[in-house]
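Q: Protein A?
A:
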Amino acid sequence: MNPFQRAGVKISNWWKGEPQDSGGAVSLNSPSFLEQVGLDGTRTKPTAEVTYFTCLKMLSETLAKMPIKYYRKTDKGIVEAEPTETSRLLTKRPNPLMTPTTFWNTVEINRNHYGNAYVYMRKKFDRKKYGGEFKIIDLWVMQSNCVQVYVDDAGIFAGVGRLWYVYTDPTSGRQYVFSTDEVMHFKTSFSFDGITGLPVQQILKATVSGAAKSQEFMNRLYENGLTAKATLEYTGELDQKSKENLIKAFEWFGSGVKNTGKIMPVPWGMKLTPLDIKLTDSQFFELKKYNALQIAGAFGVKPNQINDYSKSSYSNSEMQQLSFYVDTELFIIKQYEEEINFKILPDEDADDGYYYKFNEKVLFRTDSKTQMEYLRNGVGGMIIKPNEARRKLDMEDAEGGDVLLANGSIVPLTMAGAAYLKGASEPDETEEPEQPEEKTEPDAEQPDTATEPDETDEAEDEDEQEGGE
């Protein structure tokens, strides 16, 4: 077909309202090409499955809600370090288009969905009088399905065993090659080589696909007005075209939400028998729930986080939240902190005690009453200062609130029992003034009141005898 004939066919199809002929050019995403290479172009994406999407959302938002802090270890303990240009990238603005929340949320989604997440650190050389150093300008998330990881096992570029990342821009098609010093690489916990991770959708491909198929079945069931298949009994012989016309007629009258509850006409001599297929008999919802729990378990997400409260209570949900942090998030946070501190922090700053850390305490924010009890106990127990507690409540500092407060009845362990030792030393102080007997000598010359009653008693006896006489 020459170009003129091809143009005529396109115009004719356009005039008739038929699909346009591409003229032999086939797109890689076209359904015809996918069917030719054995791929189903209508395959449902894993993110369309509600449990899979919920797990991605839960993990990405959990990491994104934790701010990154810049600390330094000193002789007096850990203090917040003075912000630098690099630290502001992580805490204020990684790049002109993203906030830290959006940035880390995107990184975590790529890590869980594709198994790996890549962050390009754009640097420039800051020239000084003697030498210079590379400084990070901004941070960019590279779409994981556009990155290929290569290991230079032959030492062609620079040393044996170095990693190189080849990124293909999905908009322009240009390729960029980055060294391992320019890319932060975050991977899932499931990896055979320790270099790249495997995504959950690949490990549980059958389970995720089955959950998506069950959702498609429910969608088709709703589209048909919750009506199942039916059998049509008739006598005689019908050709193929008559059968197709008969089926279309019954489907037009009986299928779809718009025909729910309407009367269906059945020709004379025919009998329509619906196939009574109940979802309860096939345990459809039980199997769907079981698949959902399996997918959530692979991600490390607890049942109450995918809205399954069948075996949960208020206290149980709180313990599940703590278990989610210990069993799932602790590994993720530790991996991020190790990669950030190794790739972003200069060696001299790391030797001086500087480091980055996610503030995981935001995951355990409670109600106002519990928070006030926590702060009151911390201030009364000499753990935090009053002004530090006020800052947690977004309140300004108070005068005299930068000192630790202590209860007067609390003493150091080395002074335990000091009160008893003080009481035992009091007799020693009272033994010295026993000499006041000299001051009481004049009293000794006076008649002893203890012996005088004997004489008076004798006189009273004599009076009694005289009175008796």
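Q: Protein B?
A:
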Amino acid sequence: MGFCSPVCKILRRGKYFVLLLLSLSVLAWIATFSGETVKSLQVSSATTRTLVKDRDSLRDKVNSPAPDRLKTPPPKVQCPQESPLLQGALKLSFESSLKLKDVEIENKGVTEGEYEPPDCKSRQSVAILIPHRNRERHLLYLLHHLHPFLQRQQLHYAIYVIQQAGDATFNRAKLLNVGYLEALKDYSWECFIFHDVDLVPENDYNLYVCDKQPKHLVVGRNATGYKLRYKGYFGGVTAMTKDQFLQVNGFSNTYWGWGGEDDDLRIRVELQKMKIMRPPADVARYTMVFHKRDSGNEINKDRMRLLGRTPQVWKKDGLNSCSYKTLSIERLPLYLNVTVDIGKPQS
């Protein structure tokens, strides 16, 4: 017992010392671990910032515009002043066996009546307006020849056929006003060709483009021995820019029946100090597809009286007073068929 007591005391003191050393070691280890953790967190934070920065950089690269060579094909060059595809005077054929499907197959580049040259940019965009009622055969012959004719001229064009609904007296002029207004809802056409359905151009050097002045394209036709019908004739097929037609306030809306409306337009042009241009007589030639006068398109016996008042009424009778109701718009393969109710003549 005497011996054990001092030894036990020494052992107890040693145990306390060991525990103290272990405690200090644990504290030292905790301190070391904490420092490494802070460093690790700092590194991790820096890495995260780098990744975020890299991700933003990648997003910017992805969203940045692609080089032009990848984004769009190079722009088309402008079509030449004179198309290399022109063939001049051609012999026209009007086969009774011709079907609309045949014409569609021949003009696969035409979509909903519209065509653009595949390899160059057209110098003008042209809307062809054809007033129509019950002339399906004439329309077929015209489409058969007119589509390739216009394509050889390397034009961006669309053909609009404006159908007069009902059985009221025919009004060519008002239908052409409607065609102009409706076509501009599709596209800002630069040039308008006002085209009778029974006149087929014979020579593709007779260019369907507009000029600085209004242009009359029918110098001669087979029915008149290829001579101008009369000195001031401005009918059949005429070409005016969008602005020229607007400046004269379009056609009069008051000519119901055959005759007078083209002379009225000529007077409007002359009142604006414009000069009518014509291509050479040997180029501006047409074949007229013969037919009897349509029922509902009798000669307008009031036309001379109406012509006498044109200088007084042109500003308020025309595009700005053209009222009509659009019944349907059919986007057919070869043309846009616009059917309208234009009312009836006032009694």
